Amino acid sequence: MPFEPRFPYSRALRKELVVNAATSFVPRLDALRSGFLSRPHRLFIDGKWISAQSGETLTVLDPSTGKPLAEVAAGDKADVDLAVRAARRAFQSGRWPSLSHAERGRLISRLADLIERDADDIALLESLDGGNPVRSTRHVDVAMAIESLRYNAGWTTKLTGETALASPQSRSFSYTLREPIGVVGAITPWNAPFLMAVNKIAPALAAGCTVVLKPAELAPLTALRLGQLLEELELPPGVVNIVTGYGSSAGQALVDHPDVNKISFTGSTRVGKSILAGAAVNMKRVTLELGGKSPVIIFPDADIEAATQATSQTIFFKTGQFCAAGTRLFAHRKVFDRVVEGFAERARKVKVGPGIAPDSDMGPIISEKQLDRVMGYIGAGAGDGADVVTGGKRIDREGYFVQPTLLANVRPNMSVFQDEIFGPVLCAMPFSDASELEQLAQLANDTSYGLAANIWTRDLVAAHGLARRIQAGTITINGGGREQPLPFGGYKQSGLGREGGREGIEAYTEIKTVAIGL
User: Fold this and answer.
1) Is 293 in contact with 415 (CB distance < 8 Å)?
2) Strands 294-298 and 67-73
3) Which of 185, 338, 447, 497 is the most buried (most CB within 10 A)?
4) Which of 4, 126, 217, 289 is catalytic?
5) How many CA atoms lie within 13 A of 199 on its CB side?
6) Is position 209 annotated as part of the catalytic site?
7) 103 part of the active site
8) CA pair distance 518, 508, nearest whole angstrom
9) Tens-digit pLDDT profile for residues 391-441
10) Which of 287, 284, 221 is nearest to 84 (CA)?
11) What is the DSSP track for 56-119?
C-alpha cells in the first residue's frame, strides 16, 4: 500500500476530527444499516446489477463484533466469464474506445468528484467492513483515492510514444506507440479495499483499458459502493465490472481466463506466487504488490522522539495490517531502551475499539483466522526467547481485538523476524558502534521481502549509504513521505512491477514499434 502514515494527529486536530466524526458519521449509521447493508448485493456486470448464476451468496462479518454485516453474491467461474466478455466488448467496440483522451480524463475526474461528494458515507462503510478507525478511512483512504483519480486523469493526454533517432543516411522513419493492454483483472486486498480498488482502476482507465474487479471476500462492500458511483457516472457498460466472491473460485477464474490480458494483484506473497504461476499459462502481464517485513533503523544522533512516534504510528495504523509497516526495529544500544519504552508508553495509551467509534486509534484484526495467526506468532516469539515488553494478548471483548505488542531482543533466526505477521507487532533488536553500514544492511536485507525501509539519522553519509545498500522499493529517511508521482513496489518476494506514477500507468500499456521505409 503506497502510503507512509502520519498518526496520531496533533492533539488539536485529533480533537477536531473526533468531534466532527461524532456529528458527521454516527448519525449516518442508522441510514446505512437500514439501506445499503440491509439488502443483498449483486454483481456489477456490463453496467447492470445481476445475481450470481449459482444463486450463492457469502456473509460479510463485522470484525468489531464478529457478527454478520451484509450478504453479497458469491460469483464464480461462470460470472467471471460474463464479466470478462463484457469487458472485452467494451474494450473493442462501443463508446469507450472512441472517446478522446480528454473525454476519458474528464470521466475519471468526475468519478473523483462523486467520491468526494459521498466521502463520509464511503469512509463509514469502509470502517464497518474492514474495522479501521473512521478518522483514518476518511482522511487517508478515501482522500488518497480521490487524489489518485485526479492524478491519473491527467495522464490520459500524456501517454505518448517516441520517435527513434535516425542517422542522416537512414531510409526509414521509426516511432513507438503506447497502447492499452486490454482487459485487466484487478484483485484487491481487505486491508485498504476502497483505496486499492481505485488505485488499480484509475490508471487502467486512464490508459484506455477495461477492468474486472474482484475485491477480497472479507471486505467487498466499498467496491460495491464504488459500482453504484460508476453507474451514476454513466461509464460505458462493461468498462468496469465487479465480481464479488471467494479467491479460490472467482479470483482463480480471473487469473485463468484466456481473455484477460493483465492481472494486477495486491495481497500475500503466497497468493501472488500462485497468480504468477497461473498467469504463465497464457503469458498474462502481471503486477504484484505483495508482503513486507520492513526495517526501521534508528541511529543515536536521530530525533528519537520523532523516530519513536513514527515507528509506533506504522504499527497502530490499520492494526499493523499494512504491507509497508516498519515491523523490524534496529535501534542503537545508546537509544534502544529509550525507543522501546517510548513505544511501550504509546502502546499503553492507544485507544483500541470499533472502527466506527470516533475516538478509536486502532481497530480490530480483520477475522478470527487472522487473529489466531497473529497470536500464534506472538506465542512463537516468546517461546523462542523474545521478551514481551508490552501487549501480547487478545483483548477480552467481542470482535477480533489484540493489544499492540513489542517483542524485544529478537534474533534473526526467529520466525517473528523473518515472516510477515500482519498485525500490530513490533520486533526489536539493538545494534552497536561495531556494526558497520554493510552489516546493518545485511540485517535489514535478511528476509525474503524488500518492500520498504525507514532510516533515522542526521548523518547523511550513513543515510545515503544505507539507502544504496538496502534492497527495498521505497526508502524513507527521517520520516520522508510519498507523493502520487512516485512509484511503489518491492524487491525480492515483495512483488513484481510498480504502482503509481509514470511506471504505474505504463504498466497498463503495451509498447509497439513502427518502422516505415522511405
Assistant:
1) no
2) unpaired
3) 185
4) 289
5) 30
6) no
7) no
8) 32
9) 999 999 999 999 999 999 999 999 999 999 999 999 999 999 767 899 999
10) 284
11) -EEEEEETTTTEEEEEEE---HHHHHHHHHHHHHHHHSSSTTTS-HHHHHHHHHHHHHHHHHTH
C-beta of residue 514 within 8 angstroms of C-beta of residue 164: no
C-alpha cell recorded at residue 470 = 538496502
Residue 6 is predicted with a pLDDT of 43
pTM higher than 0.85: yes
- DSSP E strands: which ranges in 309-361? 326-332
Beta-bridged to residue 331, according to DSSP, are 298, 430
Q: Where along the chain do its domains lie?
A: 48-290+494-514, 294-484
Pull the grid cell for residue 66: 464478529
pLDDT digits (tens, 9 = 90+) for 183-234: 999 999 999 999 999 999 999 999 999 999 999 999 999 999 999 999 999 9
CATH architecture of the domain 48-290+494-514 equals 3-Layer(aba) Sandwich (3.40)
Q: Which of 4, 126, 217, 323 is catalytic?
A: 323
Question: Cell triple for residue 440?
Answer: 546493518
* DSSP character at residue 8: S
Model confidence at 313: pLDDT above 80: yes
pLDDT of amino acid 466:
96
Q: What is the largest CA-CA distance in the chain?
A: 80
Q: Where does the pLDDT of residue 24 fall: very low under 50, low under 70, confident under 90, or very high at 90 and above?
A: low
Whether 5 has a pLDDT exceeding 70, the answer reads no
